[in-house]
Amino acid sequence: MSSEVKVGVPALSTELCGVRFQNPVWTASGCFGYGREFAPIFPLSSLGAICVKGTAPTPWVGNSGTRVTETPGGMLNAIGLQNPGVDHFLNVDWPWLQEQGATVIVNIVGRTIDEYVEVARRLEGSGVAGLELNISCPNVKEGGIAFGTSLEGAQAVTAAVRAATSLPLLVKLSPNVTSIVDFAQAVEAAGADAVTLINTLVGMEIDINRKRPVLGNVVGGLSGPAVKPVALRMVWQVAGAVSIPVVGIGGIATWQDAVQFLLAGARAIQVGTACFYNPKAPVEIIEGLAAYMEREGVRSLDELIGAARPDFARIRSLPTGRRSTSASPFQTLGDAGALCDPVTGICEVPGATPAVPKAPSKATGEAADALRQWIKDSDRF
Amino acid sequence: MREALKASRRKVQWVDEPALVLAHEGDGEVFKLTLQAPQIAQMAAPGQFVMVKVGGVDPLLRRPFSLCEIRPEAGEITLIYRVVGRGTGILAEAPVGARLLTMGPLGYSFPDPAVGSGELLLVGGGLGIPPMVAAATAAVKAGRAVRAILGARSARYLAGAAELQALGVRVDLVTDDGTAGERGVVTGPLAAALERASVETGDTAGAGVSAEAEASAEVWACGPEGMLKAVGALAAQHGAPCFLSVERHMACGFGACIGCTVPKASGEGFFKACQDGPVFLAEEVTLGV
After folding, report:
1. Is B252 on the interface with A (CB under 8 A)?
2. Peptide bond preceding A43: is omega within 30 degrees of 0, i.e. cis?
């Protein structure tokens, strides 16, 4: 994979799965389409990455009836993974996204393991930056969450796609499980290069006048600021329990939210629902993060990622390159070796020395100057 | 003809601007909001809508409102809305001088009134009446013969009717309870108007009307889904081109969420109300209710 740094500020760049992203702010699958609606508003090349809409081997029409409804501080959706299919992506969307200079991660979906594998194979050699395996969509009857809520299912689909692709493989986890740490460790063992969490929480609303569920699908996925504390807690727990990078998502709407996820241990974050009511949210978060780093004298994201954690030293020492895919990565479940405190979610990994994060010094030199210049120029959006 | 009309619907790249509240009045339930939104006012066409942000994190999503009046010279737009929940409840308290983040103009407009022929019948039901004000204004300007057929539960819900009457177009009012105009529903006067238009142009109403023939009348409608369905069926019986403006729950309003589906009449799958509509050619969509 290319590890080339794109235009941007070195201090904001983040490396995971062997790919260097110009910044850690990505847009979330299902909240950004294939980027077309946003391209007139800001350059897509300014994003760390775009996780495009969940893409299947063939077009899916999605669910009937009401698909979205608002809830306090959030929303429920039951879109049902409407998507134009991988051929449309490769023939139409991907060439266009390349013209925009976008870094793209393709979220892939299937009804069966074979379908996931088929999409992964079609994308091999396309030049996309990675695959994000969607095993957590609550709105389809087959595939999706069916794989994401069984450890065996999650491992089986991860291992099958791992064997079918040389691309960096992220696995997007469902929060609708008893212990998300178990799932993170299971997919790590099955060969995932990184985990993305969380997908939506299953919820519902009932219309008291019609006396029927609001959503055509009866239940849907809850997202938005309402879920942020849950997502943050899960990122905190998982980051302490795996050795692969964690991509944080769940209710991130402001740069302050993004900083919290980074401090919890996420190497990148995704902006989802906020794009719907504030289309400029991703670039506002990039700007806010850059300004925060300058104010705090933080010279690189590595000083921030996991800095709120007692095991910061371990997080900093984790490899950011690709995992070797030559040897069978399959380990026995629960063999990741972490002992997690059920209350704090902090995990002890043998050999790691917990350390108190060191207060960073004032940013100086070239990186800081570049950062300041970038903030000054940031009204270009 | 239908294709030419459909192609004349307008869509532009939207902007997001902090609109200034210039006037805001209501009776506690139905309100009229006048906003200074110069960029949107410059670009907007009848039938298009805006997404207005109210509150911060709760309520979270913007609210869609169709444009009632568009005044490009003054840089103003007006919206008429009913308080139906928390979002509109908070909006109703926005004082003159407040700024409301407003995204628009969104979606496809009604056709260019200069493209069609025959009498333009504007059918508005309840809160479907306000967009007919902008539609009638544009049609009158284009020199088109216009008649508005407006219906509501009762007189209180005819907001926008006064603006239409002030334009000097013929307005037929019907209400469910007879508190304004005739007691009845819009399909009564609409059927009569379509009959008359057919007779005047020597057309015989009914099956077998050629889609290529010069239409004797054209119908634009906005209102409850049941009304839209009935209006579409009536227009089809008379061979009149018919454009319907639909309403849907939507999270974003600009095509990203895929929440606002309208089933396609032919083939499988859905249109997006926000991007492919909200104004659709009646025969291309399957409506519910």
Report:
1. yes
2. no
ipTM attached to this prediction: 0.91
Number of residues in chain B: 289
Asked if A340 is an active-site residue, the reply is: no
- Catalytic residue of the set A51, A137, A340, A347: A137
Looking at residue B170, its amino acid is R
Rounded to 5 degrees, φ, ψ at A26 are -110, 160
Nearest CB among B13, B60, B269 relative to A70 is that of: B60
pLDDT for the residue numbered A3: 37
Gap between the Cα atoms of A73 and A78, Å rounded: 17
- CA geometry: angle A232, A237, A240, nearest 5 deg: 125
**Tell me, what's the pLDDT at A146?**
76
DSSP state of B162: H
Q: What sections of B71-174 are H helices per DSSP?
A: 86-91, 130-141, 161-166
DSSP-derived secondary structure for A4-29: ---SS-GGG-EEETTEEESSSEEEPT
Query: Is the model's pLDDT at A262 over the cut of 90?
Result: yes
Count of residues for chain A?
381
3-state helix, strand, coil in chain A (%, to 5): 35, 20, 50
User: Going edge to edge, which strands form the sheet with B99-106?
Assistant: B63-66, B49-52, B99-106, B15-26, B30-36, B76-82, B69-71
d(CA A24, CA A48): 5
Taking a C-beta distance cutoff of 8 angstroms, is the pair A235, A257 a contact? no
Hey, is the C-beta of B270 within 8 angstroms of any chain A C-beta? yes
Choose among A176, A197, A201: nearest CA to A187: A197
Contact A62 B255 (CB under 8 A): no
Q: How many CB atoms lie within 10 A of CB B267?
A: 7
Residue A252: half-sphere exposure toward Cβ, Cα within 13 Å? 38
**And the tokens for B161?**
């009717």
Angstrom distance (rounded) from CA B118 to CA A132: 55
Q: B57 and A31: CB-CB below 8 Å? A: no
- Structure tokens of A128? 């996309």
Cβ-based contacts of A280 with chain B (< 8 Å): 16
Two tokens, residue B34: 């006048």
Assign B285 to helix, strand or coil.
strand
Max Cα–Cα distance, chain A, nearest Å: 64
Task: Provide, as residue numbers in chain B, all residues whose Cβ is less than 8 Å from the Cβ of A74.
Answer: 60
Alpha-helical (H) ranges within B103-168 are 130-141, 161-166
Distance CA B220, CA A91 (A): 38
Q: Is B13 at the interface with chain A, CB within 8 A?
A: yes
pTM: 0.88
Q: Which residues pair with B95 in a beta bridge?
A: none
Place of tokens 């008291």: A208
Round to whole Å and give the CA distance between A374 and A291: 9
| Token representation of residue B240 | 């009149």
Tokens of A153: 């299912």
Tokens 């390159």 locate to A321
| Segment A74-101 mean pLDDT | 96
Count the neighbouring beta carbons within 10 Å of the beta carbon of residue B95. 7
Question: CA B153, B155, B157, B159 torsion: positive or negative?
Answer: positive
Give tens-digit pLDDT for A33-43.
Answer: 999 999 999 99
8 Å CB contact of B57 and A73: yes
